[in-house]
Design goal:
Blueprint (H helix, E strand, L loop, with lengths): L1 E4 L10 H4 L7 E5 L2 H5 L5 H20 L3 E5 L10 H12 L3 E5 L4 H9 L4 E4 L8 H9 L6 H12 L40 H13 L16 H14 L1 H4 L19 H5 L5 H13 L5 H25 L18 H4 L5 H13 L4 H15 L3 H11 L5 H12 L16 H7 L20 H12 L1 H4 L6 H8 L3 H19 L5
Parallel strand pairs: 1-2, 1-4, 2-3, 4-5
Helix pairs in contact: 3-8, 6-13, 7-13, 12-13, 13-18, 15-16, 16-18, 16-20, 17-18, 20-23
The structure holds flavin-adenine dinucleotide, ligand DLZ and iron/sulfur cluster.
Organism: Pseudomonas putida (strain ATCC 47054 / DSM 6125 / CFBP 8728 / NCIMB 11950 / KT2440)
Protein name: Cryptochrome/photolyase family protein
InterPro entries: Crypto/Photolyase_FAD-like_sf, PhrB-like, Rossmann-like_a/b/a_fold, UV-DNA_repair_photolyase
Length: 508
């Protein structure tokens, strides 16, 4: 007989490795293991999600006629690692071959390839662009840009395309319409909640007991754990969120963790949703006039553009990618990333909801917590580990390029053409946080001035050798050069004193 391995982020019925097996003859192995739950201090909500979704998936496979060997975390003999469990079960069952699908993370795939096991690998066909196809696309180019990749994906999939091969609405991109701050009276739609069944409640108790040393808690777990629930979450977004997604994609608001974002990333990344079906639904919603084009295009761009692009880059450049540090940063991650205790209101809100919900939307990750880490010169490995640990949707194939490449510019511009550095003015424009903040966003050098302001200029000054030749930063370097020397010195000094406070372990 042959054994099929299904990992915690491979909970899809149409997995290529499953399709290659015969339920009448072969068996499936799924294992909850310490090694996967502890290689970073995952948010307990993420561990609940993975274990509960795994248990539900095992049940669903059994209902479809599969023989499933499911190893619970506390099961006797659990070796604590995926490789260990494969050795144990291969021997116990006398399996001649182990069929498995490409892993999401290089770390685990390498450990499996290094193991003396009779492995038969299958492509992860849940992505629209295979690792090999991305590799061919990348090697044909001198410079990689998401926009070029995305246009190719639009043509290939036919999503939002006219019959004559032109993009819907005559443009590839409606970002100009997508940068609106949230009007004062507008709120995001109510969030969809999912009640815990007995399986989830048992997992919540297990995780509470075994992972209390990880940051964050398990209270209030309300996330989908089955395909049917994930579909309800998706339908909720189609009905209530998508139409305004484009307009307020970059907005942030006090006490609004989700706004018009779909909150589907964790369900999608573990296989409870299928990317092609999501995109088809969005394309249809636009064609039927239910949502505007800027919303549909903005959303599809994230899925067939950014999501597939960052995965391609990850597999193209690993393992060396994880060690890059182009800006030569060495500062430790401030403790307040793990507690949310900072007077910076935008940071406290983004970190607070992250620790509470295991979720922050893209602009919070990129322009608040990410921007601060970039400006403060945090060592990339530390901030990457933070992003991998705290979000329910975090898997290295998507987290690492976003953090190391897009946020920290640690790959020297391989993924994106410029660092997304910004002063407090950006956060003020896109949110209502500054009004509730004890720092003054309109000041730069004073004691109560917004820390983002001086740190922004400090960043540009200290990285002039690496960044000043970048044409996309020409304007900001011109305005830096236009600053009176005395003012520039004061800004630099304020930046120095903020960084010294961080180095002394003080919160800002
Ligand atoms: P929406 O805003 O509703 O977007 C819809 C979907 O588009 C998302 O579910 C996601 O699948 C996809 N998407 C959007 N932006 C990106 C992107 N930049 N890269 C890849 N996919 C994208 N996303 C993860 O899934 N896992 C991560 O570990 C992760 N780490 C990130 C780290 C940093 C520093 C940054 C800046 C972004 C990261 N993202 C990550 C991307 C993005 O922030 C999340 O996908 C998004 O916030 C998830 O919430 P949502 O489902 O409500 O997304
Ligand atoms: C994230 C995660 C966790 C917390 N636990 C498990 C587990 O116990 N068993 C398992 O098969 N998968 C788990 N996962 C998902 C894996 O970490 C994921 O498959 C790898 O990171 C490779 O993508
Ligand atoms: Fe954030 Fe600065 Fe605004 Fe405070 S003033 S909320 S620190 S941007």
């Amino acid at each position: 007989m042959r054994l099929g391995l299904v990992l915690g982020d491979q909970l899809s019925f149409d997995l290529a490795s499953l399709a290659s097996l015969d339920p009448a003859r072969d068996a499936v192995l799924m294992a909850e293991v310490e090694g996967e739950a502890r290689y970073v201090p995952h948010h307990p909500l993420k561990i609940v999600l993975i274990f509960s979704a795994m248990r539900h998936f095992a049940q669903a496979l059994r209902e479809r006629g599969w023989q499933v060997h499911y190893v619970e975390l506390d099961a006797e003999g659990n070796s604590g690692s995926i490789v260990g469990e494969l050795h144990r079960w291969q021997q116990a069952l006398g399996a001649t071959h182990i069929h498995l699908t490409e892993c999401g993370e290089w770390r685990l795939e390498q450990a499996l390839r290094d193991a003396a096991l009779p492995l038969v690998w299958f492509r992860d066909t849940r992505f629209l662009c295979s690792r090999e196809a991305f590799g061919r696309w990348a090697t044909e180019r001198r410079q990689l840009r998401m926009e070029h990749f995305y246009r190719g994906m639009r043509k290939r999939t036919g999503l939002l395309m006219e019959p004559d091969g032109s993009p819907a609405g005559g443009a590839w991109n409606f970002d100009g319409d997508n940068r609106k701050p949230l009007p004062r009276q507008l709120r995001g739609p109510f969030a969809a909640h999912f009640a815990q069944d007995d399986i989830t409640a048992a997992v919540v108790a297990l995780v509470r007991q075994r992972f209390s040393d990880h940051y964050g808690g398990v209270d209030g777990f309300d996330y989908p754990v089955t395909h049917a629930e994930a579909q309800q979450l998706w339908q909720h977004f189609l009905d209530f969120g998508l139409a305004a997604f484009g307009d307020y994609q970059d907005a942030m608001a006090e006490g609004e963790p989700y706004l018009f974002h779909a909150r589907i990333s964790a369900a999608l990344n573990i296989g409870l949703l299928d990317v092609r079906r999501l995109c088809d639904d969005v394309d249809k919603a636009w064609r039927e006039g239910r949502v505007p084009l800027n919303a549909a295009e903005g959303f599809i761009r994230q899925l067939i553009g950014w999501r597939e692009y960052v995965r391609g880059i990850y597999w193209q450049r690993m393992p060396a990618y994880a060690g890059l540090n182009h800006l030569n940063n060495h500062r430790a991650l401030p403790e307040f990333y793990w507690t949310g205790r900072t007077r910076m209101r935008c940071m406290a809100q983004a970190i607070g909801q992250t620790l509470r919900l295991g979720y922050a939307h893209h602009i919070q990750r990129l322009m608040v917590t990410g921007n601060f880490a970039l400006l403060a010169g945090i060592v990339p490995t530390a901030i990457c580990e933070w992003y991998l640990a705290v979000y329910m949707d975090a898997f290295e194939w998507v987290e690492l390029p976003n953090t190391l490449g897009m946020v920290m510019h640690a790959d020297g511009g391989y993924l994106g053409s410029k660092p997304y550095c910004a002063s407090g003015r950006y956060i003020q424009r896109m949110s209502d946080h500054c009004k509730a903040c004890s720092y003054r966003v309109d000041q730069v050098t004073e004691e109560e001035a917004c820390p983002f302001n001086a740190l922004y200029w400090h960043f540009l000054i200290r990285h002039r050798p690496q960044l000043s030749a970048n044409p996309r930063l020409a304007l900001v370097y011109r305005s830096l050069d236009g600053m009176p020397a005395g003012r520039r010195d004061a800004v630099w000094q304020r930046g120095q004193s903020l960084l010294a406070r961080l180095d002394a372990g003080q919160a800002l």
